[in-house]
Amino acid sequence: MNQSFYGLLLFIFLVIPPVANFMESVMVIHMHMQMPMLVIAGFLMARFFQKRFPGFFVKWNSNGLPGILLFVIIMVYWMLPRTMDEALTTQTVEAFKFFSLPFLAGVSLRNSWKKLSSLGKNVVIISFTVMFIGLGWLYIWSPVQLCNNYLLIEQVTLGWAFLTTAIGLVIYLGYNFFIDPSAYE
Amino acid sequence: MIKNRHNTISLFLVLVFGFVLFFIGTDGFSAFTAETARVKQLIDDKPKFPEVTLEDNKGRKYSISEFEDKYVFITFLYTSCTTVCPELEYNMAQVYDKVPSKYLGEDIVFLSISFDPERDDPATLNKYKDFFNSDGETWRMARISDQAELKSLLDRFGVIVIPDEYGNFAHNSAFYLVDKKGSLINVLDYKEIDEAAKTVINLLENGTEE
Description:
The complex is a heterodimer. By secondary structure, chain A is an all-alpha fold. Chain A contains 9 helices and no strands. Chain A has helices spanning 3-15, 17-25, 27-52, 54-60, 65-79, 81-89, 91-113, 118-141, 152-178. Chain B is built from 6 helices and 9 strands; from the N terminus they run ααβββαβαβαββββα. The longest helix of chain B is centred in the N-terminal third of the chain and has 24 residues, at 2-25. The termini of chain B are far apart.
């Protein structure tokens, strides 16, 4: 049993309608569990694609930049309040979510991350940190309800989840900056 | 070198893809929330006010044809609401006050529609209207008792109402402007009182919104 298989299992599990419906019924689970798990499923399945089409990734994503950009685009897209709403009300948008998060974002993250320099990695993490702080601020202190399908209280919960994630990222960045792992080897 | 060229091409393709994705996903960078998308869609579609039976604060029953040849300025509310509805109605009152009185009841009628018909009977509505100095004639408050009819109106005008566990409703709010033939012609931001009043007055004076 290899990891691609587990990735596929995870993906199938997430697609099962009762599971999907449950996860989408709570806003914070929708954005902070279902969506990342879809990316993880793609991340695991990426090994299969890398083995199957080794030339493709070397040829078209040699320095990792196109891949990571694709990853960022897909992630930002799903953070728009509107896309989250439409995933619930429009079938095609929902289908695109289940395709794009694992196969576009997850696979390209796996393929690109190791190719990036440490500067590139830090730029990506810092951008996400800034974005999460911004989104947290937006969802918590927005005077209006951004999503029609969720209650305001869920929107605030989601905002705090964004802020907590951002805090986690800041701690990671600080750790990376101040601590030299080789000193402990 | 060859490798790098491919890399540049794919980088470019990804950028184009991202641009197209966001362009389509936000109606040309104009609607980032489902609410703005909804309003845009409504103004494009101009849906007709469906045939429903309204029961107003005086207990009179009629359909939208009661207001034929008049513009109707509509809000949706429920009287037990303690958050956005009082603000919505208070702002509606300010728009009402800005409209020259010669038009009121003649060319335009203000109408607050409750989506909570069980609690908002005519007596309740009649009491509620007094908080906003509504006269019950040129500004009426009404309920739609039939659930299927109510739903048809809410669906057509894109009003989303989610009951929460405390007997309240979460709902989106706006000013809805229906023309003399019963078609929705504009959805206005209920927080922009001056702008809404200007639109209404222009419409009454010139017959156009400009």
